[in-house]
Amino acid sequence: MSAEGWAARADGAFVAASARLASGVTLAPGAVIHAGVPIGEDTSVGSGAVVHAGTVVGAQCVIEDGAVLGKRPRLRPGSSAAAGGALDPLHVGDGVTICCGAVVYAGARLADRVIIGDQAQVRERSVLGAGSVLGRGSTIDFEATVGERVLIQTLVYVTGGSIVEDDVFIGPGVTTTNDHAMGRHARGEALMGPIFRRACRVGGGVVLTPGVEIGEEAFIAAGAVVTRDIAAREVVMGVPGRVVREVADDDLLERWR
What we know:
- It is built from one helix and 34 strands.
- The chain is mainly beta.
- Strands 4-7-10-13-16-19-22-25-28-31-33-34 form a twelve-stranded mixed β-sheet, with no helix packed on it.
- β1 and β2 form a beta hairpin.
């Protein structure tokens, strides 16, 4: 035991003396568990993964090689992300998978059975609901709220303050924005992330301008640029996006459950 209260275990992991590991927890060589961290039953932590103090990890989770849990943000003076004050602990629910190289910040909350893909990032004060998936290299920015069973594909950027309701599909390479002035606004002025209503679908490469709302069961075709609110069940294509028809009854989510 070192003077800092760390123990180098026989399996090659480094665990603070006050960490609390439940039965069945497995740690790969080079895993680092910081002070006071509870880890639930049958969770595995991969090589080089780091779980910082103030993180709570549930049971039957998989934390793959090189993942970082509980990172503290480093923010420039006046950053909008800094306005929320002190951060709560990172909470990771049961059955969560956090893949290689992913970073999940302090103050975020991952509900049960969430999957965070390789090299993805979840910023502070963001929430992902049960059963949702964040694809490889995608980012959920600060104070975004993602509902249950949401599928976010590869290289998606969900900007700060966005709201994503249950059962939404967001295709690869989608970009959302929240700042009309691109940084030239009064300090403290609220940013406007987009809103994705229940079961809407957004195709690959779509760009959403700040504050737009995508209605329930709406369909945005790949490559569209959305500059205004889209009503429920509208099908939108083009640049700028225009309504071309309505989603058919046979294509609604209830038909495919």
